[in-house]
Design goal:
Radius of gyration: 14 Å
Strand content: 35-45%
Helix content: 10-25%
Structural class: alpha+beta
Length: 146
């Protein structure tokens, strides 16, 4: 897992969003964050800077400030948790499928390349924009998962 700059965050690679809402997750991220081989995941809207989304499991988020059980439903399969939107995605053998309503709400579309960044121990980030994405674009050695 490369570190793009000395003292900077670690990245797992790039993931490309497919037209059906699926995205291949880097195997290292799947292992590090204890994602199931198949089942459900929690996806949350990203920050104003990175946009994209954060990905974790309900079990890992339980009892934290990001606990999806605290989210307030707001329709279309989405819920609001503080300033974030939350949805459920499905994973099967490292391929995550995000509902269309969540992709729309997060401002994501087919063909987007998302930089998968090690976040807190709760969730990893799939960033669409921001300084780390700009730095990542200058590093052709970062693996692309398609």
């Amino acid at each position: 897992m490369p570190q793009l700059e000395r003292g900077g965050k670690y990245v797992f690679g790039w993931s490309v969003l497919h037209p059906d809402g699926s995205v291949r997750l880097p195997p290292e991220a799947v292992v590090e964050y204890g994602l199931p081989r198949q089942g459900s995941l929690v996806v949350m809207s990203g920050s104003k800077t990175s946009r994209g989304m954060r990905v974790g499991t309900a079990a890992r988020l339980e009892g934290t400030v990001l606990d999806p059980a605290s989210a307030i439903p707001c329709g279309g399969g989405l819920a609001r948790l503080k300033s974030s939107l939350v949805a459920t995605a499905m994973i099967h053998d490292g391929m995550m499928t995000v509902p269309a309503a969540a992709l729309d709400a997060f401002g994501l579309s087919a063909g987007d390349r998302l930089l998968v960044i090690r976040g807190s121990n709760l969730a990893f980030v799939m960033a669409q924009t921001g300084p780390l994405v700009e730095i990542g674009c200058r590093h052709p050695e970062v693996v692309v998962f398609d």
